[in-house]
Structure formats: structure tokens, C-alpha cells
Write a structure and sequence with these properties.
Length: 261
């Protein structure tokens, strides 16, 4: 009895450590607050406050490689967006290219990346489904929401497996080779990722059907969610940061936001 009790405690500590010692509901609350406030704040000053706080929140997870890869992908997408915007401004003089005007949308994307990654990389699927269903959401809403959040670490793992497979076969796909040989990159990298994503979605649908999620049954979680003082502190800090960002927007950002418009 003592051994089994000790083993259960060890499992609980291991799972709690994997989740960063925070409840999934507190991380969901932080994500919801950040998504609402980053849309309301249209000034560089307010977005800077949100970005600094959200970056510190993302660093707390200590998944440096995943964060670096995510920022590299976002930098590529932002670079392409800036390049196409510059091209449109050359063709249409009525739409001038302004780097200052693109700063706020880019920082909004960075803020959402900083708050979504900790939620996606630390929460367990069952805890996420239980929290979403606890909000009395319909099945067609909470299941796709859980899939979208959990797709991020699954996709990162797929990219790692495909890249390791290509290395075993002798292919070295770096940034230069991907630019010089786009068709080969499409065939060797993006096509396997597409089929792996389709297979993952099919397996998820079968698993949801076998577990009876579509019938609205009651969840029996492996481990009960516990709201601790850390969760209260996290949500309190998030509310404070959002209030600070709104204050910076109203106090100093009115002129900047009007100039960007």
C-alpha cells in the first residue's frame, strides 16, 4: 500500500512538473486576456509592454529550441509579408510602404505566439479537453479548439522526425538549398508533413469516437485539476500587465496609433 501510494505521488509530481506547476485553466485565462487586449491596443507603447511580459512568460517554460524554431518561422512569414507589402506599394503608390505601420501587427503576432506556446507545450490533452468542456461548450467547439492547440507540438515533432529521416537518407536541407531547390523541398519536406498531418487528424477522430466524446459523457480525468496559488498569481499578473498596456496606449500611444493609421 505504501509503495503504491508513493508511486502515485511520484507520477503526480512528474506530471505536475511537465505542466510547469500551473493549471491549464490559468494558462487558458492568460491566453484569452492577451488575445483580447492585444486587439484593443493599437499603439507601439502598449504592444511593447505586452510583448515584454509575454516573452518572459514564454521563457518560463524553458523550451528554448521550440521557441527559437517558432520565432524563426514567424520571422520568415513576417519577412515575406513585408516584402509583398513593399512590392504592392511600388505598384500602387496610393498604398505607401511604412515599416512603422507594420510594427503593431507583427508585435500582435509575437504576443500571441508567446502566450499560445506555453499552453500548447505544457498542457495534457485530457486536461485541456476537461477544461474546455467545463466551460459548457458544445462538442463541435471544444474538440477543434483542443486539436488546434495540441497541433503545435505534434507538428514540431513531425518536422523533427522528417528532418531526421532526410539526414539518414543523405539529404541536407538548409535554408540555402531550400531557396535554390524549392521543388525538391516541396517533395522531400512538405509532402511528408502533409500526409502525417492528415494521418494524425484521422487517428484523432477515431480516438474521439472510441472514447465516446461525441455523446457528451462525463469525463473521468486521470488527475484532478487543482487551482493553486501559482495560478492565482499568474492570472493576477496577467491582469496587471493588460491594465499597464491599456494605460500606456491611452497615456502615450494615442499620437503613435493615429500616425500609424
Amino acid at each position: 500500500m505504501r509503495a503504491s501510494s508513493a508511486s502515485r505521488k511520484d507520477v503526480g509530481k512528474a506530471v505536475r512538473g511537465a505542466e510547469g506547476g500551473l493549471d491549464v485553466r490559468s494558462r487558458m485565462a492568460v491566453t484569452l486576456l492577451a488575445s483580447a487586449v492585444t486587439v484593443m491596443v493599437a499603439s507601439l507603447e502598449g504592444q511593447t509592454a505586452l510583448f515584454v511580459a509575454s516573452l518572459a512568460y514564454a521563457f518560463s517554460v524553458r523550451r528554448w529550441r521550440a521557441l527559437a524554431v517558432a520565432y524563426a518561422a514567424m520571422a520568415v512569414m513576417m519577412g515575406l509579408a513585408a516584402l509583398f507589402t513593399w512590392g504592392i506599394s511600388r505598384v500602387t503608390p496610393a498604398m505607401p510602404f511604412s515599416p512603422e505601420g507594420m510594427a503593431v501587427p507583427f508585435m500582435r503576432g509575437a504576443v500571441m505566439l508567446n502566450v499560445v506556446l506555453p499552453l500548447a507545450l505544457t498542457c495534457r490533452v485530457q486536461a485541456l479537453l476537461t477544461a474546455l468542456k467545463g466551460l459548457r461548450l458544445p462538442f463541435c467547439v471544444y474538440l477543434p479548439g483542443a486539436v488546434m492547440i495540441r497541433f503545435i507540438p505534434t507538428f514540431m515533432d513531425d518536422v523533427r522526425q522528417v528532418s531526421e529521416t532526410l539526414k539518414i537518407r543523405g539529404y541536407r536541407l538548409g535554408p540555402g538549398s531550400m531557396i535554390r531547390h524549392p521543388l525538391m523541398t516541396l517533395r522531400l519536406l512538405f509532402t511528408p508533413l502533409l500526409f502525417r498531418s492528415l494521418r494524425a487528424s484521422e487517428e484523432l477522430g477515431i480516438a474521439a469516437e472510441l472514447k465516446g466524446l461525441e455523446y457528451g459523457g462525463r469525463f473521468v480525468p486521470f488527475r484532478r485539476s487543482v487551482w493553486s496559488w501559482r495560478d492565482t498569481l499568474l492570472v493576477t499578473l496577467a491582469v496587471g500587465v493588460c491594465a499597464l498596456a491599456l494605460y500606456c496606449h491611452v497615456r502615450w500611444g494615442s499620437g503613435t496609433s493615429s500616425a500609424m493609421r
